[in-house]
Write a structure and sequence with these properties.
Number of helices: 8
Radius of gyration: 15 Å
Helix content: 55-70%
Shape: globular
Largest sheet: 3 strands, mixed
Order of helices and strands: HEHEEHHHHHH
Length: 155
């Protein structure tokens, strides 16, 4: 799976924890082709996360530079890492009886303009609730917290 090449050590630990929690993590499935704006999704019924690496690469203008791999591709790297953490947050929510784990009032103020736009997109295109999406958008920037919460709620 190509997306693993973009992960940090901490994000690889998150991936390993998701697998220990009986989740399947796949890449570039048909769902990614059906909506080219998504970078990841959580299939609640099948305990599956899909990372849309090709969508992330396209949206971040990835350049396949064999002489300097990863040079100028930090946006792609960040997009894929955030996608994994975002979807991992939905796994945490499922493990927590389909509820958020943090105080929503403290979370909303942490959303910047671009995350608010992404939140609107998610709410209008997917079945998640507002609170769950807010939590996922905040936690996608907090890999240590995601790792801790997977251990607490899913293992």
């Amino acid at each position: 799976m190509e997306f693993i090449l973009f992960l940090s050590k901490l994000d690889k630990e998150i991936l390993d924890l998701l697998i220990k929690a009986n989740y399947v993590v796949e890449e570039n499935k048909v769902e990614c082709l059906l909506n080219k704006n998504i970078k990841g999704l959580h299939n609640f019924e099948e305990n599956k996360i899909i990372i849309c690496t090709e969508n992330a690469k396209r949206k971040t203008n990835y350049k396949n530079n064999k002489q300097n791999p990863n040079k100028d591709n930090y946006k792609t790297e960040l997009a894929i890492r955030k996608a994994l953490r975002h979807e991992a947050t939905h796994v945490i929510q499922k493990c927590n009886g389909n509820k958020i784990v943090m105080d929503i009032n403290k979370l909303e103020s942490k959303l910047n303009k671009s995350k608010r736009r992404a939140l609107e997109f998610s709410i209008s295109n997917f079945s998640g609730t507002y609170e769950k999406e807010v939590e996922a958008y905040v936690l996608e920037d907090k890999p240590n917290k995601v790792k801790k919460l997977i251990k607490k709620y899913c293992l």
